[in-house]
């Protein structure tokens, strides 16, 4: 989940 | 989500709609670089690996599917659609884009946030997106006169990342621990590649003339 948390942009 | 990022995503979407419109309405992909479109498929597949594992929002998931689906549809069209593939200017689209893929991947192995599979592929997709437009820009210079839809496609494609730069500046000042140095630096390089195109696009718009790129 940590990966996606700071990859919220397209 | 902030207005700059939303404007960026919508501008990106518009660029894809304009390209799809050009291909379906004119049944032609003349002036479009297949190599650039193939690079975008790699960019989206490498960046959205978390598409099925992590859910951020409906908007995020839908947009990822749209970007992956549309880029695949465009490459399929240019390679397989009988009428369209005949209009592909293969002899003008000669950029050796494999080096861009290789270079971006090597750079991602060296420069990334964390040495994990997803982070390396994410950095790879960011670097590759920065250079993905090069085959298209080279092709435009070779083909001289640029038709309106192709010019608008490249314009919106360049503009979207410029909005993202405003988004990163905004987030930098509004969010305490915001840091996207990889995306930000790469985004600056990406937008810089469009500088001369933007200049000639503005001149053609001001003089209400056809877009002409110097050979």
UniProtKB/TrEMBL annotation, chain B:
Gene Ontology cellular component terms for the protein in this record: endoplasmic reticulum membrane
Recorded superkingdom: Eukaryota
Keywords: Endoplasmic reticulum, ER-Golgi transport, Membrane, Protein transport, Receptor, Transmembrane, Transmembrane helix, Transport
Phosphoprotein found in the keyword field: no
One record GO biological process: protein transport
Cellular compartments annotated: Endoplasmic reticulum membrane
Record Pfam families: ER_lumen_recept (PF00810)
Keyword Metal-binding: no
One Gene Ontology term of the molecular function aspect: ER retention sequence binding
UniProt topology in membrane: Multi-pass membrane protein
Transmembrane segment boundaries: 56-77, 98-115, 121-141, 153-173, 179-202
Family membership: Belongs to the ERD2 family.
Protein name per its UniProtKB record: ER lumen protein-retaining receptor
Organism encoding this protein: Punica granatum
